[in-house]
Amino acid sequence: MNTITLDNTLPNVFLQRTDIQSDIWRKQICFEKGKTYLIEAQSGTGKSSLCSFVVGYRKDFDGKILFDGKDSRQFKVKDWIQIRQRHISLLFQELRLFPELTAMENVEIKNALTHFKTRQEIGCWFEALGIADKIDDPVRLMSFGQQQRVAMIRALVQPFDFLFCDEPISHLDDENSQMMANIMTEEARRQGAGIVITSIGKHMNLPYDKTLCL
Amino acid sequence: MKLVWKLLRRHISLPQFTGFFFANLLGMLIVLLGLQFYKDVKPIFSEEDGFIRPDFLILSKRVSTFNTLGLGSVNTFSKKEISELESQPFAKRVGAFTASQYKVSCSMGIDGVAQIGTEMFFESVPDAFVDVDLQKWHFSKGDEVVPIIVPKTYLAIYNFGFAQSQKLPQISEGIVGMVEMMISMRGNGRNEYIKGRVIGFSTRLNTILAPESFIRWSNERYAPEADVEPSRIILEVSNPADDAIVNFINEKGYEMEDDKLDAGRMTFFLRLVSGIVMMVGLLISLLSFYILMLSIYLLVEKNTEKMRTLLLIGYSPARVALPYQLLTIGMNAAVLLIATGVLCFLRTLYLQRLHAVFPQMTAGSISSAILLGVAIFVVISLANAVIIRRRINKIWNNKG
After folding, report:
1. Closest approach of A81 to chain B, Cα-based (Å)
2. Are A105 and A133 in contact, with CB atoms under 8 Å apart?
3. Helix H segments across B53-103?
4. Which residues of B touch A (CB under 8 A)?
5. Domain map of chain B by residue range?
6. H/E element holding B198?
7. A113 contacts in B (CB within 8 Å)?
8. Which helix (H) or strand (E) holds B124?
9. A178: burial class by Cβ within 10 Å (0-12, 13-18, 19+)?
């Protein structure tokens, strides 16, 4: 997958509004593989909705979302599974970790789908992000910031053309968010993938190709 | 898969699943047992009598209190009555029962040790009415052994009543031929012995049957002066279901010995009762299926968010549904296996008892019960699998 195009897209909840000022909604926007985007937004402007739309979780939008020119509304269940397993990885704002599993298990349950990374590689990321000592602790006992790092590792253990990160560093200090940014860009570069990051203020320090205001 | 199971097994309610398990087990067992019992017992009722063909009817006169007191009409058939019967359009052949007119007693033993002795009697019908190999059904003057056919009920009386209480071995239909009977015949100033050999059992004849030639010879020898009219008539008809037969018999006040009818009735009731039992079993199975589906719904409800996340990180609905599908199929399979095991066990128990009463019975096959069990297993498991999958699809579509 090389491009994701938003063609006149708008969440249904905004259909009644006429005062929309946005670089994305009701516009023609194309995200290209290999580039890095920052989407800045106020809360309530629909950035999590955007993330839900591109992974096929929600379909309550007007207009079109096209993957390589193909209308996503035509996709079947198995197409979405392929997209979620191999083309688009999403770091959820609400993380969506499994509280009863350990940190490592949360990553492995994702890695089991494609066996993309070895246990050792995953261990290195835990090390780099400073949570190696928590690797076998249940995720529910970890702080939100620590959980954010686990969720980032989980988002990276799959092949992807685009990585969507929904407020990835909201609970991290600068040092850790820099560390996370490094790992993320390194992996994205290795895969030649595009990165789309949303933020409501604090954002990762990266060489963005484009900054959009939602 | 292990991790997915670790996730999804949370909230599995052991009491609910145990409830389902035993309810389903009970239902399945009752259904299978109902069918198996029917299969095993049915041959006993529908057994063909090998000696008297079904289009032979046996007629007698009603025995009333007057007969017992020696008053009123006699209960034997006169020559006139017999010829009247012969002239009926439905009658093909008529034969009279001839009874022995002398004293007979018999002792039975194995290896020459006498074990039971009893007074008895013989009767005969014309040989043409007895459907048995004439080589066996044969007596001529000077023979040392006389073949006899006894009512099957005698065997049951011996096996079930006598042998058990006297701690004697039970006799099956096959080995009763090896039992030696010493028959003593007294009359006309003689007291002589002859050996008897039981060549078969009849469900339709309430008498001890000997070849016609033997009765004629022995009556002449031990009771030459007696000449008694027969009290029973055997009748061959072209169509046993002919209404004219019943009308004639009723009009004349005769009685028809027809245990065939009883057997038919018994088979009907057996089928009815088995049917009801199986319906109850099916009902329990259905209810248990309902319990299981409720538990699964509850379980999916409690684990909905986890399943949604699994779907969002790339798991297919089929893969998310699989653990619960395997769980239900596994439980159904366990139920089938245990039910079959318990069925086999219970079957040996009741077959033992049945064999005591009907030693000659051949048990039906267990295959149809197993087949039915497998069919129920497949139907219930498929229904489970489909319902679970549809529930997961709802989560996929954000409707759950």
Report:
1. 5
2. no
3. 65-69, 79-86
4. 1, 3-4, 6-7, 10, 306, 309-310, 312-317, 396, 398
5. 2-47+263-396, 56-258
6. strand B190-202
7. 313-315
8. strand B123-124
9. middle
Tokens representing B42 are 């049915």
Backbone angles phi, psi at B234, to 5 degrees: -110, 135
The 3-state secondary structure of A41-73 reads CCCCCCHHHHHHHHCCCCCCEEEEEEECCEEHH
pTM, to two decimals? 0.71
Strands B190-202 and B145-151 come out as: parallel
SS3 assignment, position A77: helix
Q: Do B314 and A154 touch (CB under 8 A)?
A: no
ipTM of the complex: 0.95
Give the CATH class of A34-56+87-213. Answer: alpha beta
* Strand (E) or helix (H) holding A182: helix A174-191
Q: Do B316 and A77 touch (CB under 8 A)?
A: yes
Helix locations, B303-316, DSSP H:
304-312
Chain A CB contacts of B313 under 8 Å are 84, 96, 109-110, 113, 154
Over residues B243-259, the pLDDT tens digits come to 788 788 888 888 877 65
Alpha carbon separation from B19 to B26, B73, B170, B301 (Å, rounded): 11, 70, 45, 19
Q: Which of A132-136, B151-155, B174-178 has the lowest mean pLDDT?
A: B174-178
Q: State the smallest CA–CA distance between residue B1 and chain A in angstroms.
A: 8
Minimal Cα distance from B303: which residue of A?
A: A98
pLDDT in tens, B48-95: 555 666 677 888 887 766 656 655 556 788 888 888 888 888 888 888
Pairing of β B98-99 and β A210-213:
unpaired
Dihedral through CA A162, CA A164, CA A169, CA A175, nearest 10?
0
C-alpha–C-alpha distance, residues B51 and B149, integer Å: 9
**Numbered residues of chain A with Cβ closer than 8 Å to any chain B Cβ:** 55, 57-58, 77-78, 81, 84-85, 90, 92, 96, 98, 100-101, 105, 108-110, 112-114, 154, 158
Residue-by-residue DSSP string for B321-358? HHHHHHHHHHHHHHHHHHHHHHHHHHHHHHHHHHHHH-
Query: Are the C-beta atoms of B206 and B198 separated by less than 8 Å?
Result: no
Return the biggest CA–CA distance within chain A.
52
B57 beta partners: B235
A57/B398 CB distance under 8 A: yes
B179-216 pLDDT tens trace: 777 888 888 888 888 888 888 777 777 788 888 888 88
